[in-house]
């Protein structure tokens, strides 16, 4: 019969996997880092809402304390944010947007997540959303300058878009 892992044990295991992921990321081994972050997320997946299989097996779910809930949410946010860092380097921009958005569900003021999502939106040519993320960073920390190079590029791209739209409308009217 298998032993039931406690909430704290799952959090500890998830933390260990995250740290291994961090090590692989620093070494430049993105594939292994991504795998470790996913494993960490799997450890904490059912902590807030117990698995339906536990219920079927007659295992009574343990109530999660506020402290444990904070730890779960914090670790989940960090893992999503770290995954997005790996995926940004791999130029998987849609996944970066997905994971940073998940990280931001837990902390809307996470500058790293906003910055990475802003970059991903920029690379997918969604300049309005990119600008929104970078402006949010500025509202959180007016002294932060990480987004300045992107803001200049966003403005340039928006000007080109405006010129192109005007030209398209002119051609339609001349039609």
Protein architecture, described:
Keywords: Isomerase, Rotamase, TPR repeat. It is an enzyme of class 5 (isomerase). InterPro entries: FKBP4/5/8-like, TPR-like_helical_dom_sf, TPR_rpt. With 175 residues, the protein is mainly α. Helices cover 76% and strands 0% of the residues. It has helices at 7-27, 30-44, 52-56, 66-89, 93-106, 111-123, 127-140, 148-174.
> For the terminal residues, how far apart are their CA atoms?
77 Å
Mean pLDDT: 89
Name the CATH architecture of the domain at 1-90: Alpha Horseshoe
What ranges have pLDDT less than 50 throughout 5 or more consecutive residues? none
The major beta sheet can be summarized as:
none
Binned strand content: under 5%
Please tally the β strands and state the result. Answer: 0
Q: What is the name of the CATH topology of the domain at 1-90?
A: Serine Threonine Protein Phosphatase 5, Tetratricopeptide repeat
SS class: mainly alpha
Radius of gyration: 21 Å
- Name of the CATH class of the domain at 1-90: Mainly Alpha
- Following the backbone from N to C, one meets helices and strands in this order, namely HHHHHHHH
CATH superfamily of the domain at 1-90: Tetratricopeptide repeat domain
Number of helices: 8
Q: Specify the helix fraction band.
A: over 70%
Question: Which helices and strands appear, and what pairs or packs with what?
Answer:
Blueprint: H1 7-27, H2 30-44, H3 52-56, H4 66-89, H5 93-106, H6 111-123, H7 127-140, H8 148-174
TPR repeats: 77-110, 111-144
Organism: Clytia hemisphaerica
Protein name: peptidylprolyl isomerase
């Amino acid at each position: 019969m298998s032993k039931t892992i406690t909430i704290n044990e799952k959090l500890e295991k998830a933390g260990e996997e995250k740290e291994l992921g961090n090590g692989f990321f620093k070494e430049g081994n993105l594939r292994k880092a991504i795998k470790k972050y996913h494993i960490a997320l799997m450890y904490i997946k059912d902590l807030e809402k117990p698995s339906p299989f536990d219920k079927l097996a007659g295992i009574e779910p343990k109530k999660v304390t506020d402290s444990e809930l904070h730890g779960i949410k914090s670790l989940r946010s960090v893992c999503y944010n770290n995954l997005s860092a790996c995926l940004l380097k791999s130029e998987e921009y849609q996944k970066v947007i997905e994971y940073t958005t998940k990280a931001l569900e837990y902390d809307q003021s996470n500058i790293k997540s906003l910055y990475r999502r802003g970059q991903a939106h920029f690379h997918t040519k969604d300049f309005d959303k990119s600008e929104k993320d970078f402006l949010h960073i500025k509202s959180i920390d007016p002294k932060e300058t990480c987004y300045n190079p992107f803001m200049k590029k966003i403005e340039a791209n928006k000007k080109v878009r405006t010129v192109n739209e005007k030209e398209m409308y002119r051609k339609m009217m001349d039609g």
